[in-house]
Design brief:
about 220 residues; alpha+beta; Jelly Rolls; seven-stranded antiparallel beta sheet; globular
């Protein structure tokens, strides 16, 4: 039985609507969340976390890397997806089938029955780091949703509208929570408020976020 089939049999809280075609799935990834660090270890060994630079030359506070057929990168040349890790000149590590299945099952729970993620961004948040409001718009097909899995320390997710100045909702994300958004909300501005210090039994003093996208 595949992971997606196993997850479909587990009791889970009903999706909580955030906006049209956007929902929080509380503890949806609970069955795999505790094992995720072990799954990620070989990926991080092959493609270590790094602080990328924005096109304007600013160092990003959130460390990140990728797995899958494509990886998101940022440097002076701009934001884009690449098939090759520029730090190693090798393909990005493969996406674990179990994580891919989790993302597909979460997307289906919010009504996105066809989702083929080929990129998983792995973001590492240390206490005090934040992610400013932004849109995910470098993907080729914006009809596919974004699936975001939270691991470790609780974070405050900021979810706004299609304009940067639109009001934002503040949503607490706990270990194992999943957020899915697409459709009319695919280009909604979103971010993470500064992460509060603390310790989590699985990840320690950090939050790890896995963001699945259909990029190529």
């Amino acid at each position: 039985m595949s992971l997606a089939e196993q997850l479909s049999l587990l009791p889970s809280a009903a999706p909580l609507a955030i906006a049209a075609r956007a929902a929080l799935l509380p503890r949806f990834a609970a069955s795999v969340a505790d094992a995720a660090p072990a799954l990620l270890a070989p990926i991080l060994e092959q493609a270590p976390l790094r602080h990328m630079v924005t096109p304007g030359g600013q160092r990003m506070s959130v460390a990140m890397t990728n797995c899958g057929n494509a990886g998101w990168v940022s440097d002076r040349r701009g934001y884009r997806y690449t098939r090759i890790d520029p730090a190693s000149d090798r393909p990005w590590p493969a996406m674990p089938p179990s994580l891919r299945g989790l993302a597909q099952t979460a997307a289906a729970a919010v009504g996105f029955d066809v989702f083929e993620p080929d990129a998983c961004l792995i973001n590492y948040y240390a206490p005090g780091t934040r992610l400013t409001l932004h849109q995910d718009r470098n993907e080729r097909d914006l009809a596919a949703p974004v699936v975001s899995v939270s691991l470790g320390l609780t974070a405050t997710f900021l979810f706004g509208g299609l304009n940067r100045r639109d009001p934002t909702q503040r949503i607490q994300l706990h270990h194992g929570d999943v957020v899915v958004w697409g459709g009319a909300q695919r280009l909604a501005f979103h971010g993470i408020a500064p992460l509060r210090d603390g310790a989590h039994p699985v990840t320690g003093r950090c939050r790890i976020n896995l963001t699945f996208r259909q990029a190529l």
